[in-house]
Amino acid sequence: MTTEQLVKKTLEKKLLLVNLLAFSLASSFAVLLIVSYLWMTARSDLLRNAEIVAQVIAQNSAPALLFKDQKAAQEAVRALAQDTNVLAGELRYPDGSLFAVYQRPVNAGQAWQIGEVSQTPYLQTPGSHFYSRYLVVTTPVMAEEQQVGSLQMHVDLTSTYQRIAGLIAVIVLATLAAVLLAGRLLKRYLRRILNPIQQLVMLMQEVSGNDDYNQRALIPTDDEIGTLGESFNFMIEQIQRRDMAIGKELVERKRAEVQLDHIAHYDSVTGLPNRHFFNRRIKELEYRVKNFARFGLLFIDLDNFKYVNDTFGHRIGDLLLIAVADRLQKTLRSNDLVVRLGGDEFAVLLDNPKSTDDALRLAEKLLALLSQSFSCEAHEFNIGASIGVAMMPDHVGTFEDLLSSADAAMYEAKAFGKNNVQLWKPAMSRRTAQRFTIESGLRKAIENAELEVYYQPIMELATLRVAGMEALLRWKHPTLGFVSPAEFIPIAEESQLIVLIGEWVLQQACSQIKLWEQQFGPLFVAVNVSARQFRQPGFADSVERIVRENACPAHLLELELTETMLMSQTSETLAILTDLSSRGFKLSLDDFGTGYSSLAYLKRFPIHKLKIDRSFVSDLPGDKDDAAIAQAIISLSDHMDMRVVAEGIETREQAEFLYGLDCTYGQGFLFSKPLPAPQCQDFVEKNLRRALRERII
Ligand code: C2E
Ligand code: MG
Ligand code: MG
């Protein structure tokens, strides 16, 4: 059996084989020892017997030799016939000559004996010598202490051999029987001993095959197998525990992954997919673009969300966003995707709309929905939205272009007066590009001296004398030409640029105040302040520094703020306003009536002037509502000890009507458009001269 074959055998067979082999080897060794011992004792017994017989015969034949009595000698050696093992006996004289012989009669089968015996050399020296088949014993024949001859005897070993062979056969048979018996016993006991191991093996196979770690090994014995079973149980218990821990960890990890994916791809406020999700989705849909599938994109921007957020805080703002998301989701089909792109911007990706008209109809429907009021806690909001619509492949060929086109159309909707839907046209994207040009150009505008401050006179309606001016920023772009502040100020507000520009305007206005004061006496100049500038830490300090640097009287500088700026973070706002007012600057509330002013706040704030927005003036005096609003603002400000400026007066009737309502100041094209400082100076001079003339007249 090769080692390879042995390795493949079962443990039971291996143990059986090894045991039997060891047992057989031991038995063989024992048999060998016994046989050797038997041979030795048989040999020595035979030798001793033979020597005794030889000595007796030698003694008996001594007289015959002494007296050379051949007959007696023959008689003496014939006595050897008594011993059946003696083959022959020879009596010789000391010189070796034969005296008497005994020869056992032989049958045919024993012919060898005669041959071999006759060939055996005569041994003169007494002693014995074993040959393979017989023993030769030579004994001296002594008479009166003299050797008178010698007897040589041949003893047959056959019967000794036969006896030993018989014994060996018995021993070998007994050993074989013992080996067989041992084999049977071993088999039985080994099976008993190995049974728990086999069960353990089967259990292991079952555990590893089914991954069932609930199984346990039975522990029937206290020996090493029992310890093995215990160790096995301990091990699978450990594995089970580790398995459970790993399983738990995997579940945790999976959950964390899902959570992370959710955080990364969904908006935390509304729960809608976010911009990342949108980007991933459009990549997945790329193959359908190649197959000319149609997609529509509605770019939605809420109109007055910033106001709600600034005025009522982020919590209410978030609630409003959730309500908006809810309305959008409820209206859309399941295969249309609505995402929150950020802030108050949402996008709806329409999958396979039948036509552009379909997309527009849906946009109108969403607009109508978003125009309905939202109630968040105790508040009611009417916000509305501006929606831009673009189609693929009708308008563009990629999702990136689809998004930017819908964005451009949305901007157009905003510029169109908000709360409307615009379908993308090539010119819109050009305007978006222009917006980008404005943003990048604005950074260099101050350095390149492209900015200039214009001044629009503000008249005292009672005397029609110039009371002050409003500083209005103008930008002459090298390629775009004149750019309106209404267009570039919001862009500047999106970055820190507004702070830089605002300080520059203040600088210009303060030096102008100083010049005009020297020339015409006190004339106030109102400077528009943006929300970002107003909330900039150290704003009051920077205003004071500029005023001081220009040696400008603080009370002639008026800061124009808007309602929305004041309605948010009221305690902080109040602190800034109080600080500014205590430093001697005048504060006026611009575009009054267009926002959501709270009269309660108005009472608390140190405001000096209210500016009635142009929208309430333009239809005067015909429009009764506007007339009532103008009148209400004027009487309110009178009660609160504030002055009123009516903006956008373009006709004489408007001026007279407002004067009739006791409005203190008026500003508008009727008196003058915003003018560069030198022309404004001319205007003031003329106004002064006319006043003097009228007084003279
Ligand atoms: P605003 O402060 O309400 O300024 C009045 C706007 O009404 C000016 O537009 C002025 O030219 C215009 N206006 C005055 N009288 C009439 C009139 O009779 N009819 C008509 N149709 N319009 C009249 P402008 O100069 O285009 O400024 C627009 C807005 O840009 C300003 O509104 C103000 O909010 C902002 N702005 C202008 N300059 C600055 C500035 O230096 N800083 C900041 N933060 N904002 C500025
Ligand atoms: Mg203003
Ligand atoms: Mg205004």
CATH H-tier superfamily of the largest domain: EAL domain
Bound ligands, named by name, code or SMILES: ligand C2E, magnesium ion
Number of helices: 24
Q: On the 0-100 scale, what is the average pLDDT?
A: 88
Radius of gyration: 66 Å
Number of domains: 4
Structure write-up:
α20 links the parallel β18 (586-592) and β19 (609-612). The protein has four domains: 9-105 and 133-209, Beta-Lactamase (2-Layer Sandwich), CATH 3.30.450; 213-265; 275-424, Alpha-Beta Plaits (2-Layer Sandwich), CATH 3.30.70; 439-591 and 602-686, TIM Barrel. By secondary structure, the chain is of the alpha/beta class. The N and C termini lie far apart (146 Å). The longest helix is centred in the N-terminal third of the chain and has 56 residues, at 11-66. The strands form four sheets. Strands 13-14-16-17-18-19-20-21 form an eight-stranded mixed beta barrel, surrounded by six helices. The chain has a five-stranded antiparallel beta sheet with strand order 2-1-5-4-3. A five-stranded mixed beta sheet has the order 7-8-6-11-12, sandwiched between helices. α2 (11-66) packs antiparallel against α3 (70-78), α2 packs antiparallel against α5 and α15 packs parallel to α17. The chain binds ligand C2E and magnesium ion (2 copies). The site of one magnesium ion has 4 residues, from β18. One magnesium ion binds at residues 590-591, 611, 647.
Briefly summarize what is shown.
By secondary structure, this protein is of the alpha/beta class.
